[in-house]
C-alpha cells in the first residue's frame, strides 16, 4: 500500500536527516570528503536538496494541469 502525502512529507525529511547524520558520524573528513560522487556522503547531502525540489515541481505541474482542465 502506498503512503499518503502527509506521511511522506514527514517521513522523507526524517530519513534524509538520518542519512546525513549517519554520514557525519562515519566519514572522517565529513564536509571536505563529500565532493566525490562515489562517496555515500555526497548522496546524503544531495538527497535533502533534491526531494523538496522534486516535490515542488511535481505539485506545480499538477496544479497547472488542474487549472488548464478547468478553464
UniProtKB/TrEMBL annotation:
Q: Name one GO molecular function term.
A: glycosyltransferase activity
Keyword set, alphabetical order: Glycosyltransferase, Membrane, Signal, Transferase, Transmembrane, Transmembrane helix
Query: What transmembrane ranges does the database entry give?
Result: 42-65
Q: Which GO terms describe its biological process?
A: GPI anchor biosynthetic process
Q: Where is the signal peptide?
A: 1-23
A Gene Ontology term for the protein's cellular component: glycosylphosphatidylinositol-N-acetylglucosaminyltransferase (GPI-GnT) complex
In the UniProt record, does the keyword RNA-binding occur? Answer: no
The lineage's top-level taxon is Eukaryota
Pfam families to which the protein is assigned, alphabetical:
PIG-Y (PF15159)
Its protein name is Phosphatidylinositol N-acetylglucosaminyltransferase subunit Y
Species in which this protein is naturally found: Balaenoptera musculus
Amino acid at each position: 500500500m502506498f503512503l499518503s502525502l502527509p506521511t511522506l512529507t514527514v517521513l522523507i525529511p526524517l530519513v534524509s536527516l538520518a542519512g546525513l547524520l549517519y554520514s557525519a558520524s562515519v566519514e572522517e573528513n565529513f564536509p571536505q570528503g563529500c565532493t566525490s560522487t562515489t562517496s555515500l556522503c555526497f548522496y546524503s547531502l544531495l538527497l535533502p536538496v533534491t526531494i523538496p525540489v522534486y516535490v515542488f515541481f511535481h505539485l506545480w505541474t499538477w496544479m497547472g494541469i488542474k487549472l488548464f482542465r478547468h478553464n
